[in-house]
Amino acid sequence: MRKKQKFQWNEMTMGTCYYPEHWPKELWASDLERMLDTGITVIRIAEFAWNKVEPQEGVFTYEFFDEFLDLCQKKGMKVIFGTPSATPPAWLTEKYPEVLNCDEAGVAYRHGGRRHYNYNSPKYRELVSRIVEKLGEHYGKHPAITGWQIDNEINCETSEFHSEADSAAFRMFLKEKYGTLDALNEAWGTAFWNQTYTDWEQIYVPRPLLNQGYNPHQHLDYYRFISESAVSFCRMQTDILRRYKKDGDFITTNGLFWNMDNHRMEEECLDVYTYDSYPSFAFGLDREPFCETDLNDRHWTRNLTETRSVCPHFGIMEQQSGANGWTTRMEGPAPRPGQLTLWAMQSVAQGADYISFFRWRTCTFGTEIYWHGILDYDNRDNRKLAEVKEFYRKFKKLDALCGSDFVAAFGLLKDYDNEWDTNVDAWHQRVAHASEEAVLETSERTHTPYDSVYLREGTTVEELLAYPVLIYPHPVIMTEERAELLKQYVEQGGTLIIGCRSGYKQENGKCVMLPQPGLLRRLTGSDVRDFTFVSPAEGPVYAAWDFKETPKEKAAAGPEKASENMRTEMPLFHDIMETADPDAKVLARYTDSYYAGKAAAIEKKTGRGRTIHMGSVFTEENVRLLLQYAGVLSPFDSLIQAPDGVDLVQRQKDGRTWLFALNFKSTPQKIILGQRMRRIFAERCAQGEVELAPYETEVFEV
Ligand code: GAL
Question: What's the mean pLDDT when you consider all of the chain?
């Protein structure tokens, strides 16, 4: 079973990100007072301020943060203190250029930006350990401190590493993993294109190759190695801080980035996980033309879902409060009145109990002069400050929800091997991205909330059985252990739904010489006899679904589409299948191309559960059908009817249930309450029609 989270907030808590080094000291006291007056009781500081503590190599000065922390203590402000490893000082990178990360060609990223270091340089590790030790030793017991943030956005900016130190560490990683070069050559299939290694020194992290013809098995190990490096860099810091921090103070980091096993980092290093949420990226000036019917900012729900999977009761370290942009990038407009609250409520609805706005005041210098904070350069009270105050008033009405659980109707099953294989394999990436998007969109539009569920070492069948339905879109890589776990899940009553391209690789990313879906074949009862990308030379290919035995499902597709929906387009890719088991039955057949009439979806019952192998990618239409068929679509239907522009989400605790209704539209939206419920913000009971103002959120206690 999942271990208990090491730290949880015990009341809804609001914070902001503050940079005392950016402002004259005369502003500090009034800033803190105004924050407290707004409801902000926690600030995150210092994550880029290495120079303030070590202005020269080996010279440590503590006065600056002593003075600031003492002021915080006096005013009653709590502080999350950041370790500064994301921005090494100029003296450091100049003297020790080997700490720098490099691009694939080996050219070093120079001083001036951030996250331009590599995790594996022994010198960087030594200097980071020392500054973290000094910070812990000196500030660890300060009463104003409530928590620590490691680095800043680990694996953001880049999640690829190509320095010499990385190649050296990669060799160590591989020696540990494979023991001998023979084993490595076998695992990587180096017989192909004469790549056989005869000395460990011949092995590097990826370097420029003609046509980028990387060895995919080597490349997959490289991503595993990056994750390992990042986690170990984080652990190096947390091990130190644990010796100095006060009991009860937490250690966190702000994620969530690529090529990282975030679950492992949370489990091995952290007490709680935080996320940085900037939904206004969705309206960026350099994006696709804005479209009211797209999910736009609701895509952030996907990231919040991922964060919740890492840590169910998470925090938001940076919640958007103003327009985002750098001097070199135009990223997104100012939140419209109400949107700042909507996006913060989106985080809360998905499980956040801590909301910290980025940043208190927009910086007047540097790259981020257009990454706007609550206050603007002029430092006057403004509409954003007023909205943060109003958000706080509502947020505190949710105190009883603090620590409550998000309730999902189904799970989206994932694992890191397959996630990283999508970096390596363009075929895999194409189907995986399309399907994940479809699952999110269906969930949003049909009000069917889902969790991301990661298959990891130690995942138990009980954890999986918490979900009546699991969609595992494209488990291209399949292992004996995972296949066995899935079998137990199905035998014990679960419904497992997989898509095309399942089970054709083993864990090194080599293809298996088995009929597809490989190790899953006994469970699915399906046999892939042929497969193809949809040919651009032909028109779209459809599947006709055979749901005759369950006529109720037809209606579920919506009255206007009831009959049409039994025929869905099957885009991108097709497994062309036959049944391979007497207990398997065909659920859908292709109606076009040379494989018209062949099976497009096969269902097989095993024990108390069943498996559905759908031979294409997931789309909004077919996910809707499958969720309905599996009996989990739109679980709130009898409680609240809402248009698809309104998101519905549920949190539960101690037998109490709250439903969030979030209006993501710029126009009022009507919802219909099927029973009498208490409106938490409006502080009265309601039943029947309720109108939500543009961007308004209401929380109902059921
Ligand atoms: C975040 C980062 C902040 C700030 C913000 C705006 O990703 O953690 O430090 O840079 O973006 O760019």
Answer: 95
- Supply the residue whose CA is at minimum distance from atom 10 of ligand 1: 368
Question: Rounded to two decimals, what is the model's pTM?
Answer: 0.96
**Dihedral sign computed on CA atoms, order 15, 20, 22, 28:** positive
By CB atoms closer than 10 A (0-12, 13-18, 19+), residue 652 is middle
The residue-averaged pLDDT of 419-439 equals 97
Q: Cα separation of 532 and 544, whole Å? A: 19
Asked if residues 162 and 103 have their Cβ atoms less than 8 Å apart, the reply is yes
- Determine the distance separating the centroid of ligand 1 and the alpha carbon of 181, expressed in angstroms: 42
Find tokens 């101690």 and name the residue. 654
| Residue 597 confidence (pLDDT) above 70 | yes
DSSP sequence for 127-159: HHHHHHHHHHHHHTT-TTEEEEE-SSSTT-S--
Strand pairing category for 405-406 and 646-653: antiparallel
From the CA of 324, give the closest atom in ligand 1.
6
CB 412 within 8 A of CB 442: no
Question: Helix 216-244 vs helix 122-139: angle between axes, to the nearest 10 degrees?
Answer: 30
How many Cβ atoms sit within 10 Å of the Cβ of residue 387?
19
- Can you read off the two tokens belonging to residue 504? 């054709």
Q: How far apart are CA 651 and CA 194, in angstroms?
A: 56
Taking the centre of ligand 1 as the mean of its atom positions, its distance from the CA of residue 84, in whole angstroms, is: 14
The alpha carbon of 27 and the centre of ligand 1 are apart by a number of angstroms equal to 22
Compute CA distances 411 → 238, 266, 309, 453, whole Å. Answer: 31, 20, 10, 6
Residues 303-323: b if buried by 16+ CB within 10 A, e if exposed? bbbbbbbbbbbbbbbbbbbbb
For residues 325 and 334, give the distance between their C-alpha atoms in angstroms, rounded to a whole number: 10
- As given in the structure block, the two tokens for residue 179 are 């023991």
pLDDT at 669 over 80: yes
> How much is the pLDDT for 3?
66
Closest CA to 8 of 454, 453, 404, 452: 404
Establish whether the linkage from the previous residue to 517 is cis, with ω within 30° of 0: yes
Q: Which two tokens stand for residue 168?
A: 């050296």
pLDDT tens readout for residues 561-573: 444 448 999 999 9
Q: In a mutational test of the pocket of ligand 1, which residue from 153, 365, 367 has the highest number of ligand atoms less than 8 Å from its CB?
A: 153
Kindly list the distances between the CA atom of residue 563 and the CA atoms of 235, 407, 542, 544, in Å, as whole numbers in the listed order. 56, 32, 14, 10
Mind listing the pLDDT tens digit for each residue in 143-174?
999 999 999 999 999 999 999 999 999 999 99
Which residues does the annotation mark as catalytic? 153, 318
Pocket residue to mutate for ligand 1, from 368, 370, 372, 374, most atoms within 8 A of Cβ:
368
Q: Any residues with Cβ below 6 Å from ligand 1, and which?
A: 152-153, 156, 276, 318, 358, 368, 371
Tell me how far apart the alpha carbons of residues 395 and 610 are, in angstroms, rounded to a whole number. 42
Q: What is the pLDDT of residue 548?
A: 53
End-to-end CA distance of the chain: 29
Give every CB contact of residue 186 below 8 A, 6+ residues apart in sequence: none
Looking at residue 287, what is its pLDDT? Answer: 74
Residues 6+ apart with CB under 8 A from 435: 473, 474, 499, 617, 618
Strands 684-692 and 697-701: unpaired
